[in-house]
């Protein structure tokens, strides 16, 4: 039980570590966009999403105090289950809808055809 | 446990929820630390996971229709990233000050805890003010939720997050009154820990919002 004490509520130290990590992980993506740093779009997006994902993990560990042991593992299991559902929902929606979008007639052609009909 | 039903009041007050591990009832000093390890915290966590799915779906909607501008304004025309950075830091500061409040609560320092909770509330209020100003600005530009699919998805996603922060702030004020009236009772401690999860969770969702909606939106 005593092993929980540290991880459950955190300490000043763990909150400050989490906070400082979050500051860095927030400032870097904002700096890339605001300072117009000269990197390709792909690199910029990779940095934004990569650091965002890391910051989510930092928050989960340092602020929400989720560990594998907490609540006999149920907290972690429900988080994992939710994450899997989210991945399915997000990637599935984007994948399917982008395919649909590609198979649609381009708006420009459509307008031209309507003109021809007149 | 059965013997305590007849007695006037068990140590630490009655517990109106299911308690786990009945085999070791050590009603000693260190028991205080473990009150939250009951169904309430796990149940609240599962509520948060369901909330997470709501936000996930709103993010998916935004991903699908977020670039359909209907000849209207695009993110690069609308978003003011410097203000979003400020709002982000309001939420981040409120997260760490809530953490300090929980630490003080654990040490039974009621006044210090209330001080940090009030600071948290002020940062939360600052965030909400920024958001309302942004919405008002968009509205005056004619970029309301009806202007395009992008703006519908944007208002729904960011607005849902804002409503959550509003609800959390109201909850915070109610809890401050409760603690002032009844002190750090077991029930109040449990409520403060639940709101702590809720508050940190909203900050976590905001990471997705500023990365995916604001920063990515301005880049594309």
UniProtKB/TrEMBL annotation, chain A:
UniProt subcellular location: Cell membrane
Keyword Membrane: yes
Main location per the UniProt record: membrane
GO cellular component: cytochrome o ubiquinol oxidase complex; plasma membrane
Domain of life: Bacteria
Record's keyword terms, sorted: Cell membrane, Electron transport, Membrane, Oxidoreductase, Transmembrane, Transmembrane helix, Transport
One example GO MF annotation: cytochrome bo3 ubiquinol oxidase activity
InterPro entries, A to Z: Cyt_c_oxidase_su4_prok, Cyt_o_ubiqinol_oxidase_su4, Cytochrome_c_oxidase_bac_sub4
Entry's transmembrane regions: 12-33, 39-64, 76-98
Membrane topology: Multi-pass membrane protein
UniProt GO BP: aerobic electron transport chain; electron transport coupled proton transport
Role: Cytochrome bo(3) ubiquinol terminal oxidase is the component of the aerobic respiratory chain of E.coli that predominates when cells are grown at high aeration. Has proton pump activity across the membrane in addition to electron transfer, pumping 2 protons/electron.
NCBIfam families: CyoD
Subunit composition and interactions: Heterooctamer of two A chains, two B chains, two C chains and two D chains.
Homology family: Belongs to the cytochrome c oxidase bacterial subunit 4 family.
Protein's name in the database: Cytochrome bo(3) ubiquinol oxidase subunit 4
Source organism of the structure: Tritonibacter multivorans
Lineage, broadest ranks: Bacteria, Pseudomonadati, Pseudomonadota, Alphaproteobacteria, Rhodobacterales
Gene that this sequence comes from: cyoD
TrEMBL record, chain B:
Annotated GO MF terms: cytochrome bo3 ubiquinol oxidase activity; cytochrome-c oxidase activity
UniProtKB keywords: Cell membrane, Electron transport, Membrane, Oxidoreductase, Transmembrane, Transmembrane helix, Transport
SUPFAM superfamilies in alphabetical order: Cytochrome c oxidase subunit III-like (SSF81452)
Family matches, as PROSITE patterns: COX3 (PS50253)
Top-rank lineage group of the source organism: Bacteria
Cell compartments where the protein resides: Cell membrane
Membrane topology field: Multi-pass membrane protein
Any Gene Ontology CC annotation: plasma membrane
Membrane spanning stretches: 44-64, 84-103, 115-133, 153-177, 197-217
Every Heme-copper oxidase subunit III family profile domain range: 37-218
One GO biological process term: aerobic electron transport chain
Principal location: membrane
One of the Pfam families matching this protein, by short name: COX3
Role summary: Cytochrome bo(3) ubiquinol terminal oxidase is the component of the aerobic respiratory chain of E.coli that predominates when cells are grown at high aeration. Has proton pump activity across the membrane in addition to electron transfer, pumping 2 protons/electron.
PANTHER family attached to this UniProt entry: CYTOCHROME BO(3) UBIQUINOL OXIDASE SUBUNIT 3, CYTOCHROME C OXIDASE SUBUNIT III
Family: Belongs to the cytochrome c oxidase subunit 3 family.
Quaternary state and interactors: Heterooctamer of two A chains, two B chains, two C chains and two D chains.
Protein name as annotated: Cytochrome bo(3) ubiquinol oxidase subunit 3
């Amino acid at each position: 039980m005593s092993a929980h004490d540290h991880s459950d509520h955190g300490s000043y130290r763990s909150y400050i570590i989490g906070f400082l990590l979050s500051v860095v992980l927030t400032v870097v993506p904002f700096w890339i966009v605001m300072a117009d740093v000269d990197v390709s779009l792909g690199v910029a997006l990779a940095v934004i999403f990569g650091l965002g994902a890391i910051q989510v993990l930092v928050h989960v560990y340092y602020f929400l105090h989720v560990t594998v042991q907490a609540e006999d593992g149920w907290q972690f299991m429900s988080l994992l289950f939710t994450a899997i559902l989210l991945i399915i929902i997000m990637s599935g929606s984007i994948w399917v809808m982008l395919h649909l979008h590609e198979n649609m007639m381009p708006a420009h052609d459509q307008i031209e055809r309507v003109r021809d009909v007149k | 446990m059965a013997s305590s039903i007849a007695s006037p009041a068990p140590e630490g007050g009655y517990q109106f929820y299911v308690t786990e591990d009945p085999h070791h009832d050590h009603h000693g000093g260190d028991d205080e630390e473990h009150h939250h390890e009951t169904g309430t915290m796990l149940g609240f966590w599962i509520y948060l996971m369901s909330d997470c799915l709501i936000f996930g779906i709103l993010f998916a909607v935004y991903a699908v229709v977020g670039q359909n501008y209907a000849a209207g304004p695009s993110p690069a025309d609308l978003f003011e990233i410097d203000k979003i950075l400020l709002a982000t830091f309001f939420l981040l500061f409120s997260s760490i000050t809530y953490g300090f409040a929980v630490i003080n609560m654990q040490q039974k320092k009621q006044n210090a805890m209330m001080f940090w909770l009030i600071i948290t509330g002020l940062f939360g209020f600052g965030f909400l003010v920024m958001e309302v100003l942004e919405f008002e600005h968009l509205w005056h530009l004619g970029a309301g939720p009806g202007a395009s699919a992008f703006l519908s998805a944007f208002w729904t996603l960011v607005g849902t997050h804002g409503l959550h922060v509003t609800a959390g702030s109201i909850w915070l004020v109610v809890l401050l009154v409760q603690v002032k009236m009844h002190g750090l009772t077991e029930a109040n401690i449990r409520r403060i820990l639940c709101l702590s999860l809720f508050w940190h969770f909203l900050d976590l969702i905001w990471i997705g919002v500023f990365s995916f909606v604001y920063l990515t939106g301005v880049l594309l």
